Structures are given as C-alpha cells and as structure tokens.
Amino acid sequence: MNFSQVTLRLRAIKKDIHELRLTPVVDIQEKIQILKSINILLREQNKLLLIRQRIIDTRKNIEISPQDFHSIHSNQYESEKVA
Predict the structure, then answer these.
(1) Which among 1, 58, 59, 67 could bridge 5 via Cys, Cβ 3.0 to 4.6 Å?
(2) How far, in Å, CA of 74 to CA of 77, rounded?
(3) Using one digit for the tens of pLDDT, what is the confidence trace for 34-69?
(4) Cα distance between residue 2 and residue 7, in whole Å
(5) How far apart are the first and last CA of the chain?
C-alpha cells in the first residue's frame, strides 16, 4: 500500500467507527457485536498507522550520497558560471 491508500483507508475506518458508535442499540448482544466490529476496525487502524509511520520514516531516511551531493553541487556551480 502506498501513503495515499493508507490515508484513505484510515479515513474510512474513522468514519465507520463513528457510524457504529452512533448506531442505536436495543439489546446487549447487539452492543457486543458493535463493539467487536469497532475492535476489529481499531486493530486494522493500528496496523495501518504503523505502515504509515514506516512510509514517513523511509521518506525521511532517504539520504543523498556524497557523490550525488558533489554532482548536484558541481552542476549548480556550472549553471551559475554560465549565467
């Protein structure tokens, strides 16, 4: 899953949980089933939050190698020299 897919699913889970919590309940068995459904959604949400955090960490950890940095810097110098 990519970042946008994870984000969309997290929003959908939040909406589903909200709707489940608003569901009117008459008997205790219904309430138990609703709470089980919410629990399942919360577990999925936790897994997706971990995935999203890994994606964010991966983006932060992308480093430019010293050779790439030198290449970028020298290209910038050359373009300034020409201008």
Answers:
(1) 1
(2) 5
(3) 999 999 999 999 999 999 999 998 887 765 455 554
(4) 9
(5) 44
Rg (CA), the chain: 24
Buried b (16+ CB within 10 A) or exposed e, 29-61: eeeeeeeeebeebeeebeebeebbeeeeeeeee
**Overall size of the chain counted in residues:** 83
Token pair 């949980």 in the structure block, residue: 17
Residue with tokens 């997706």: 48
